[in-house]
Amino acid sequence: MQYTYAERVNYMANSAIRELLKIAEQPQVISFAGGLPAAELFPLSEIKESYAQVLGAGDPSVLQYGTTEGYLPLREEISAQMRAKGIQTEADNIFLTNGSQQGLDLITKLFINPGDVVLLQNPSYLGAIQTFRSYQANFDTIPTNEAGIDDLALELLIKQNPPKIIYLAPTYQNPTGTTLTLKERKAVLRIASKYGIPIIEDDPYGELRYDDEALPSIRSCSTDNEVIYLGTFSKTLAPGLRLGWIVAEKSLIAKLVVAKQGTDLHTSTLLQRATHYYLTHFNAVEHIKTIRQAYKFRRDYMLTELEENFSDQAIWTKPSGGMFIWLTLPERYDTVNLLPHALAGNVAFVPGAHFFTYNGKYSSMRLNFSNPAPQQIKQGIKLLSTIVAAY
Amino acid sequence: MQYTYAERVNYMANSAIRELLKIAEQPQVISFAGGLPAAELFPLSEIKESYAQVLGAGDPSVLQYGTTEGYLPLREEISAQMRAKGIQTEADNIFLTNGSQQGLDLITKLFINPGDVVLLQNPSYLGAIQTFRSYQANFDTIPTNEAGIDDLALELLIKQNPPKIIYLAPTYQNPTGTTLTLKERKAVLRIASKYGIPIIEDDPYGELRYDDEALPSIRSCSTDNEVIYLGTFSKTLAPGLRLGWIVAEKSLIAKLVVAKQGTDLHTSTLLQRATHYYLTHFNAVEHIKTIRQAYKFRRDYMLTELEENFSDQAIWTKPSGGMFIWLTLPERYDTVNLLPHALAGNVAFVPGAHFFTYNGKYSSMRLNFSNPAPQQIKQGIKLLSTIVAAY
After folding, report:
1. Closest C-alpha to A220, from A256, A165, A167, A182
2. A106 vs chain B: nearest CA distance in angstroms?
3. How many CB atoms lie within 10 A of CB B7?
4. Which residues in chain B have Cβ-Cβ distances shorter than 8 Å to A35?
5. Per-residue b or e along A344-373, where b marks 16 or more CB atoms closer than 10 Å to that residue's CB
6. Do B3 and A271 touch (CB under 8 A)?
7. CA A12/CA A131 separation, integer angstroms
8. CB contact under 8 A, A60 and B37
């Protein structure tokens, strides 16, 4: 039998890059390609204890069906943490998801008709582009100039071709590691608000800051419901748990409930209970400090190695947080073609083209510094430099 | 700011019934409304031990990002269990999901364009109807006569108005508890195959059988890729874990990978590792036997109580498995209107109308016997009978 798929399947990204990057998982390859946290920093014993406690308390409801919006005490805890960051919420504004990727998917399901325009940064997170594409969205990109977001051009664009939604990762963005200034945040918010366009603020990396004080989130600057905020435990606790949350108005939470009902009923009860135990019994703040120290060291290490090996052949971002550096070679390079050479030489990256909806910078690449050990960073950047020079 | 939602939101079921049934969660209410397993039978200590073992083995990759298709050893284990039931599979035919509800959602995402027809049993599982509706499907229902599925009428219907997909829960179906005979299974498969229509075989209750030998699944009767089989650990292990699987051809698995990537990246690594540990270190077969005994007792108990209290005012199904009995009152009754009276009298059910895409039997109701204790069943059925008589 030959299957006849739905039209949207034509818009779902093929996985050529994923197939290629499976090579990067081989042990001899030094991989800057993944977006993986450092597994050796996961709080294994605390998570073990959390599961042991909730499964050992004699309450079988930890394994029973749960509500779609999520376990109330966990929503209360997250709500308090959001308030501590200046985001005004109650538990009723918090909706639990299977990682923030599911938050993206559900919001797209609720807002995007085929042909609707999503306005986003160029480049943007690959997984977000994939989700929007799967709902047959079209794209516009946020205009920039040397100073950052060009708010005059942005307002003109929105006025002339109003997008259905704006997608932003304002803090230590994947893939570039760059951060929108407070001025840029407020400008986008003002324009979005004026034209009635909701903003998705995707904030997986906000806690991974290495230099400055945290900037206020866009959500914390808003006074209305313009901003739908996405949070996750993937970078601060562990991504293999698959737990994230949405901060939104109650009317939108009610729609999310219906959408998630049809999607997977609810997020794992046991996972939510164990995470609640972890957050209320262990020092998550100290744990995040440990992660910050380790990643800051790796970022500095990679920046130093780049300086030593690439200063005459490339430019790169100097992110003050997150997990990625964005390196741009001279324009004659095409990193999509460079990748097989790099893999043959046992080093991996993600070609920049994959993070653009169009007009990709084909000479850029994304380098991850959170996962490889410092010694691998040293060796890998050296290797990469030799391969680039020989290309 | 006023949100403008996507068109599909108009087709997402409102949650009036869910709101109403929140009353059923109050402790004084005897609820036959839920679709909940008996929590007191969950293997708490074995699951606790499984999590302790995988989190205590010193391998932090149990908390790391994982592959979208799922943890290979778990796919191998499920594949072996499927083969033991006559379904020819390899690990590459198994795709892990967050419960079988997600399997339904992903398959619908891959197959259904707005306006496409889903052919299903009438009544059918409410959650499946919700999922199909959220993709703006239309519905046709499988024609039946006194002998069951009317295969002549079915073939005519499919010929004249070919559906995009057929959705079947052939074994101890939710909501009626009824089972398709082998003859019916083969008839639907033959016709679907002839006209090139894929079948979704949803099998959450197959293991919960109390009388007969198991009938072959439709998938096990098929020689081509006509049948996409959905399995789940929700009824045999625990629903609060949220773990299910899809059995499908490799070409479809590849599409599912892309669809799930955009939806939530992958199913929890830790959950998959712990479930794999459970399946390979504890006697899951013995555990299922314990569940069967308890539920068989409750089913028999409910049937006896129905006989004693309803024999002059209703008819009902006598399911040989699953979790539900379908009770039909004389036609003058409308169970949607009856429900508030029942709730006021501290007993709950789900009105039958919710399980129909149209032409609902408004005098039917779904009664769950797996969750309430026998004493509650006795008391609740008596209560319900009094309320019905007084209505």
Report:
1. A182
2. 8
3. 11
4. 65
5. ebbbbbbbbbbbbbeebbbbbbbbbbbbbe
6. no
7. 8
8. no
Buried b vs exposed e over A239-257: b needs ≥16 C-beta within 10 Å? bbbbbbbbbbeeebbbbbb
Beta bridge partners of A97: A244
pLDDT value of position B391: 85
Q: Which of B264, B273, B276, B368 has the highest number of chain A CBs within 10 A, making it the mutation to test binding with A?
A: B264
Please answer yes or no on whether A66 and B240 come within 8 Å at the CB atom: yes
A68, A69, A70, A71: CA torsion to nearest 10: -110
Q: Looking at residue B15, what is its pLDDT?
A: 58
> From the CA of A268, how many Å to the nearest CA of chain B?
5
Separation of alpha carbons A348 and A338, rounded Å = 10
CB atoms within 10 A of CB A25: 12
Residue with tokens 């894929």: B198
Is A226 part of the contact surface with chain B (CB cutoff 8 Å)? yes
> Which residue from B43, B20, B45, B44 is spatially nearest to B33, judged by alpha carbons?
B20
CB contact under 8 A, B1 and A238: no
Q: Sketch out chain B's domains with CATH numbers.
A: 13-43+286-390 (3.90.1150.10), 45-281 (3.40.640.10)
Length of chain B counted residue by residue: 391
Q: Are B246 and B102 in contact (CB under 8 A)?
A: no
ipTM over 0.90? The verdict is yes
A241 neighbourhood in chain B, CB within 8 Å: 63, 268-270
Question: Which residues, at least 6 apart from B184, have a Cβ–Cβ distance to it below 8 Å?
Answer: B148, B149, B151, B170
CB contacts under 8 A, B 101-130 vs A, are 101-102, 105, 109-113, 116, 127, 130
- A190 in reach of chain B (CB within 8 A): no
- Cβ-nearest to A63 among B47, B61, B111: B47
- The arithmetic mean of pLDDT across residues B77-83, rounded, is 98
Nearest CA in chain B to A224: B1
pLDDT, position A25: 78
Q: How far is CA A315 from CA B25, B109, B172, B359, in A?
A: 60, 42, 64, 67
Give me the pLDDT at residue A140, please.
97
pLDDT in tens, B326-370: 999 999 999 999 999 999 999 999 999 999 997 667 899 999 999
B174 vs B272: CA distance, rounded Å: 26
Q: Minimal CA–CA distance to A305: which of A248, A271, A347?
A: A347
Give me the total of CB pairs closer than 8 Å, taking one residue from chain A and one from chain B.
250
Beta bridge partners of B94: B247
Judged by CB atoms closer than 8 Å, whether chains meet at B263 and A131 is answered as: yes
pLDDT at B1: 87
Mean pLDDT of B372-377: 96
C-alpha torsion sign, points B245, B251, B252, B256: positive
Q: Is the pTM of this model over 0.80?
A: yes
Q: pLDDT-derived band of residue B26, with 50, 70 and 90 as boundaries?
A: confident
| Buried-exposed string B368-381: b where 16+ CB fall within 10 A, e elsewhere | bbbbbeeebbbbbb
Quick check: B373 contacting A, CB < 8 Å?
A: no
With beta carbons under 8 A apart, name residues in chain B contacting A110: 5-6, 9
Is residue B138 within 8 angstroms of chain A, CB to CB? no
- What's the pLDDT score for residue B374? 94
Pairing status of strand A199-202 against strand A227-232:
parallel
Whether residue B101 and residue A1 make contact (CB cut-off 8 A), yes or no, is no
Cβ contact B4–A47 (<8 Å): no
| Whole-angstrom distance, CA of residue B95 vs CA of residue A187 | 44
Contacts of B36 in chain A (CB under 8 A): 64-65
Amino acid (1-letter code) at residue A61: S
Give the per-residue pLDDT at A111.
98
Q: 3-state DSSP call for residue B360? A: coil
| Matching residue, tokens 């308030």 | A83
